[in-house]
Structure formats: C-alpha cells, structure tokens
Amino acid sequence: MGKLYMGFDAGTQSVKVAVYDENFELVAAESLPTTLTYPQPGWVQMDVDNYLDCCVKCMAKLSPRLKELGRDPSEVVSIMGDGVICGICGIDAEGRPVTPYINYLDSRTTEDVEALNARGLEIFGRETGNPEASPMFPAMFARWFAKNMPDEMTRVVKFVHDAPYILMSLAGLKGEDAFIDWGTMSGWGLGYKVEEKVWSEEQLEILGIDPKHMPRIVKPWDQIGTLCPEMAEKTGFPAGIPILAGAGDTMQSMLGSGVFGAGQGVDVAGTCAMFCVSTSGIVPELSRPGMGLVFNSGTLPDTYFYWGFVRTGGLALRWFKDNVCQKAEDGSHYKVLSDGAAKVPAGSRGVLFLPYLTGGSGDEKDASGCFLNMTMDDDQFVMWRAVLEGIGYDYMGLADNYRAAGVDLTRITVTEGGSRDDLWNQIKADMLNADIVRYKNPGGAVLTNCVFGAWATSGAENVEDVKKTLAGVIALNGDYKADPAMVRRYRTLFESRSKLVSDDMKAAFKRLVAMRDVE
Questions:
Q1: Looking at the chain, which residues constitute the CATH 3.30.420.40 domain(s)?
Q2: Where does the record place the Carbohydrate kinase FGGY C-terminal domain (predicted)?
C-alpha cells in the first residue's frame, strides 16, 4: 500500500481539494464554487461555513473516487490546506462562527483606515513592514466587528481565517484551540512583529483589539490534530489522519511557482490579482507610506515578499463572463472571449475598463468600475480585451515602483487560474516589458500543500528537502516574450490612462458615487 497526500485551497471563488501520490502525481481532484454576498455598496461578505461545506463535500466525492481508481482512502497520511490571508470571522467557544466572514474585497472600513493613517504611527512600518492600514486588512475588520457587532463580540473567543477554520473543524477543535500559521498571520497587515512571528501587544493596544481574541501562532507544518470521527463519517476518510496547520494561499502559490529565494516576481492571477516580489526582509524604499504595497512573511523561515494588488482583478473577469455575457454556468466561455479579443488591436481601440468594482484605494478611493470611450463599433471582445488591459495598467504602476527600488523584473512567473489564458499572458508580457513564464502546475498551492504534508509526516527535518522536492515537480510549460512595439504602445496609453484616473476623473468619481444614494 502506497501513501497519498491530501491538500486543499480555500480561495475566494472556490474550494479545491486534491489527492496526490508519493510521486506527486495527481490522483483525483474536486472543486466547488463559493458564495459571496453584497449587503451594501462596497461590502462583500461570506459565511465561513460555506468554505467548510465545500471542502467536506469535495472530500466526500473523492473517497469513492479513490476506490474506483484502485486506491484506498486509508492511504491518505496527511491533510494540509491553504486559504485567503486577508479575511476573518469571529468564532465562539464551540468553534462556531458568530460573525460574517469578511475578506479583502470589502471596503466598509475605509473611513476608519483614513483616520488611523492620519495619526502617522511609525510602529506599523517598523514591526510589520506595512506603514499604513488598508481597508483589506483583517486588523481593520476586527475593529469593525468590535464597533458594530457588540452583542456578537461578547460570544467571540477567537478570530480565524478560512483555512484554519476548515482545518480545526476537520479535527473537531474548539474555539480556544484556534491557530494561525506565521504566513497567514502576516495577512493581518497590522498587529504583529513580522520577523519575530509574534503578536505585538503595543500594536494591538493601539488598534483596540483584545489580545485574547488572537489565535496562537504555529508553523505551517505543525500538526494541529487528526481527522475526527464526525468528519470521518461525513467524508469517507478514516479518522486519525494527521492534519497540519496549513498556510496562506499566496505563499503556497509562490512556492509552487519555484520562488524559493529573494528577487523574483510572481503574478498570482486569482480573484485578487496580486503582483508579488520576493525579498530577504523589509526594503525601506518599498515600505514607505503611499506606496500601496503589502509586506508579508512567506511559508518557509526567513522568506518575505511585497505585493501590490487589484482587489477585483480576477473577480472582474468572472463578473464580465457571468453578469455581462450571462455565461455563469459556462467556464469555457473565457476561451471564447479571449479567442475573439486576440483579434482586437492592443489598446482595445481606445476603450478603457477601470476594474474598481468594489471601490478604489489610496488617492483613488472613490474610483468605481466602468467602461470608457466606447463606440457603436465595439463588442464584447473589445470589452473583454479592455478588462484584461485594465488590470494590466494597474500592474504597470506596481512594476514601475518595484523597478525604482532596484528589483529586477525581467522575468515574472504567473500562477493560478488566469495563467491558463495565453492572450492574458501575452498582454502582461507586453505591458510589463518582461518575460512571462508559466509552470506545469498553474494552481500550485494544492500540490505545495501535499509536498509539505509528505515532508512533515516523514520525519524529515531539513527544509531544503521541501525546496528540492518542489523544484523536481514543477516544469516550464509557457514562455511569453514582450513585443517591443507593443511595449511602446502600452507605455503611451499607460501615461494617458494614469492622468485620466488620478487627475481628470477625481471629481467625476465623487459625483458618480453620490448618485448611488439619490432617491
């Protein structure tokens, strides 16, 4: 009997669960979509039990599938998952949710963020690498819960992220057992010491967050329990399978893309389009107020990275397919759109899409999503190319900041769902003036979890073994070169677009936002 390893990725739009064998070949996989709700403009929330239900249902499908393939569910020797690093809910003593789950797509804390940043506190940048608060930080969600849900907060024992919630539920843990790995910890944005991997009492006091609500910090590969009998019955897998603490989705995607050291660029083309660069620690030039970057700890010891983001980057693609094209049930329509858009000239004939469907940030906090400069000659393919380019323009601004700080971006790895689109990858190569490379496993987070599961349960002690194993299972399967003529065209368009958004449209955005409240 061989060994199998189970991993899951609890992303914003779906939960994916997969089983790999000892050669790290995929045996079977299942995924289910999640449900997001929008109670008010700028608000995005979920029920964290939706994540758990999706995971359990996927596991329940996988157990008979393994038998059909001649494998036994009892061969699974570890379970490890990853999840969204910027999203939390409060749980009670029994480990049950008592608040909604709020993630990075939400903008309800914008006013609180502005007030906190106006204080100009130096401690945040010094201890976390993040000099300013952001509406996407869980630290700000925790403040919002305390101010707006006082009754529920009397029952909150701990704050947890989505993957730890799934893992502790699979293990049958209670609220006081709540945990967080050191990478996901850095997803809080504020409230911790990033290099020491501990909560910061001084920051938590400033933030008004009670330290008793913070989960214990563990290593990603620490065992936090085993599959409990109740979940064994629901999933069809035997009780007693070791469950590891898990990691953040971005951290695992980077490792799964071969990023093991400093100075490498990664585009995590998921729901929140994230443009990351790995570093050996805090880079002062990138941790200045106003840069709009987030600094995080990686999964492995002494690894760090900065990332800029378009919060609705990947979600904008789904929005266009589902809501504009009315193809919510047809995942293949992405290819139809890109095939058509490939025939549209670079620059989309002047049509622009601004991807701020849940609001802007920083100086463009009032920005909203919109198409501009359309004529009767334009169709859904022009609009689709404009959506892709709209995200790319924000990436260009981030790339300029990285390069100004001395980060080499001649080669950028792309990962997650968006990496499968050849047109999208070529557009990024041209807009960023860089080689865009893709590896065999574009959704590498789940595989990375399984590699960690194998390492943690084998008794190995050398972290280098994880790097060697990952390096051996990833393989290049896409390389997109920049076209110099297209690089020049996009740079000209970028300059015009930047002035349009930052200067010309400021008053228009304020007026547009105000129109939503006209009765």
A1: 4-251, 258-312+410-480, 313-396+484-516
A2: 268-456
Stretch (H or E) spanning 426: helix 422-432
Overall fold of domain 313-396+484-516: Nucleotidyltransferase; domain 5 (3.30.420)
466 pLDDT higher than 90: no
pLDDT for 271 beyond 80: no
Distance from C-alpha of 166 to C-alpha of 463, rounded to nearest angstrom: 26
Strand partners, 294: 307
pLDDT band at 256 (very low <50, low <70, confident <90, very high): confident
Tokens 């563990």 -> residue: 218
Interacting residues of 412 by C-beta distance below 8 A, sequence separation 6+: 265, 266, 267, 428, 432, 434, 435, 436, 437
- Give mean pLDDT, residues 30-58: 96
Copy the structure tokens of residue 56: 């359990």
Calpha distance 393→390 (Å, rounded): 5
Query: What DSSP assignment string belongs to 294-338?
Result: EEEE-SSTT-EEEEEEETTHHHHHHHIIIIIS--TT-TTHHHHHH
Does residue 410 carry a pLDDT above 90? Answer: no
Residue 507 main-chain phi, psi, to 5 deg: -65, -35
Q: Does the pLDDT value for residue 408 go beyond 90?
A: no
Tell the residue number behind the tokens 């900065």, with chain if given.
Answer: 306
CB atoms within 10 A of CB 235: 25
386 token code pair: 């404009």
- The CATH superfamily of 258-312+410-480 is ATPase, nucleotide binding domain (3.30.420.40)
Model confidence at 443, pLDDT cuts 50, 70, 90, reads: very low
User: For residue range 134-147, what is the model confidence (pLDDT) as tens digits?
Assistant: 999 999 999 999 99
> Rounded to whole angstroms, how far apart are CA atoms 443 and 55?
17
DSSP state for residue 349 in the 8-state scheme? G
CATH number assigned to the domain covering 4-251: 3.30.420.40
Pairing of strands 216-218, 247-248: unpaired
